[in-house]
Each structure stands twice: as structure tokens, then as C-alpha cells.
Amino acid sequence: MRPARAADGRPVLRLASGLEIRRGNLLAGLGLVLAVLALGLISLGVGATRTGPAELIGTLLGTGSGDGAFAVLEVRLPRIALGFLAGWCVALVGAALQSLARNPLADPGLLGLSQGSMAAIVLMLVFLPAAPLGLIPFAAIGGGLAVAGLLIALVGGARAGGMAILLMGIAVETVLSSLTAILILYAPPETSYALSDWLAGSLFQASWGAIAALGPWVALSLPAIAILGRPLRVLDLGDEMAMSLGDPVLRSRPAILLAAVVLTSAAVTAVGPLSFLGVMAPHLAGALTRSTGRARLVLSGLMGGLLVVAADTLSRGVGGGIALPIGLSLTMIGVPLFILTLRLRLLAAMRTD
């Protein structure tokens, strides 16, 4: 690895294989990782059970005991880990879909992928309540794949542009939202209450078992980033330019949708929908440094995980005895940051003009 300059003059680190990493992207990634670790340590001490610094350090070193150690190891640490992994998945998918659709508002919810997974899970829990819980992730993936296949079929195949997929996704998402609402309305009261709680986005059921169930699906995101990073980079330039640069659009587009379905379904199964995160995180990451392709996916994923951990910390810190859904606290933190970022970008653009 050695310092060099990219074709546009920006400083990069060039590997022996020829791969270039922009210094700005590397610094932003390291900054986000440090922010996640720092916020995670702060979050470990936040909650109804008081945990001082000495007790927290002792618990992490394996010498803690009592209620404080239980709260840290069995409640807070699983919530932090599960929230980060789910936020990583949703934000990464949001960045990928924005490049695919060439629209800054695209995210798993807007294209109906989240709704497809949620509708499949709700159908299973309402009509097959005795089914094994291990089937829920596969039901979610099946629902997401059904929506993705339906989108491709409705827009006329993989040759359709990203905007057509986005508009058709909005229509499908609206129908599925209505279907889910009807199912919850007429479900038994206890089932309806549990589903309503989950649909608001929840880390209440976080556990090491839930992390172990989500972990393998999250691990798939790493090869997905490596494989799909270049196609996403050229798809930002448009389908015609991507094809002229040698990208097999007819194969890469369905592959991106498949990866988006799997990661979205895994996150929805674990914590429910994380509304607007897929839109916010890529834009907030973009405010730190300009990035494309693999770097944009990684930075967006880190930002998504950071936002969910921050939202969970807020919900436990200011909620008192009220259990706030993670979706609500995520909106309270993310939307003001999103508005501020867009406002600063607008002011910078006005000064440039």
C-alpha cells in the first residue's frame, strides 16, 4: 500500500493489486467505527439499572456479578449488537437501491421489499401460529423475493430502468401496507398487539440467539459488497453508460435485487421495519465524504448501524419507564440530522452558484 493520486487528482492509497482507496473514505470509515465503539460503550451504561464505570469495566472483564452484570451482558450488549447489524443491513440496501434506481429516495420500504417481508411474516403468524419460529426468516425472504419478482415482471423484465422499478415499487408497497393493516385489524387481540409492537421497529426481543440467527445473513453482505460494488458504481452513470463500460446489466440488476431482498428480510425478521433509515444513512454518509461503489456501501452500513445504536441509547436514556420503539427514536435522531445535512448542502450549493 502506497500513497498516490487518482485520475481526478484526489489522494488515494493504492494496493499492490491496483485497488485504490480514497483517503477521505478511509478516514470517514475509521471515524464511523470509532464513533460506533464510543457510543456502544456509553450505551452499555444507560438504562434503568445503574451501572457505574467501575462495574461496567469489571463486567466486560468477566469479574462483574449481580443485576448490573446481567443488564450489561444479557440486555444492553445484545441490543447494541443486534441494532448495529440490522442498521448495517438496511442502510447498505438503501445505498444499493439508490444506485440501482438512480433516485436518492429509494430504500427497501419504498420499493416494497420490506412490506413484502412483513406481509409474509404477518400471514404466517396469523394463519399458521403453530409453525416453527425458525421458518420466519425464510417466510420473510420468500415475501421479499415475491415482491422483487413481481416488480421485474410488472415493469417488463430486467431491461426496465430504475425509475420504472421505483414507481412500481411504490404502488406494490401501498397495496401490501393495506393488506398488512387489514390482517392486524382482524387478528386476535394478543397477536395484533404483538405485531403492532414489532411493526414499530423493536429491539425488545434482542438476545444472543437473535444475533446468532441474524449473523450468517449479515455475513453475506461482505461478499455482496465485494461483488456488487463495481456494478453499482457504473449503474450510477446510467444503464447505457454501464453497458458501454462492460457491465452485464441484465445479470447485475437481478443480483442486486436478490442481495437487497435477503438483507432486508433478515433485518425485518430481527427488529421489524426501520423506517427511513435506508434513505437517511447513505445521505448522511455522503455528507462526510464523497464515495461510490464499495466505499459508499460500507460507509452507509456503518452510518446505519451508528444511527440505530444512537436511537437505542436515546430510547433507554430518556424514555424512563416507557419502552420507546426503536423506529420512533430513530426518527427523532435521524430526521433532524437529515434535514440539517440537506440544508447545509443547499446553502453550499447556493454559495457556489
TrEMBL record:
Membrane-spanning segments: 26-46, 80-97, 109-128, 134-156, 163-186, 206-228, 255-277, 297-315, 322-344
Protein name per UniProt: Iron ABC transporter permease
InterPro entries: ABC_BtuC-like, ABC_transptr_permease_BtuC
Keyword Lipid metabolism: no
Segments forming a coiled coil: none
Domain of life: Bacteria
Membrane topology: Multi-pass membrane protein
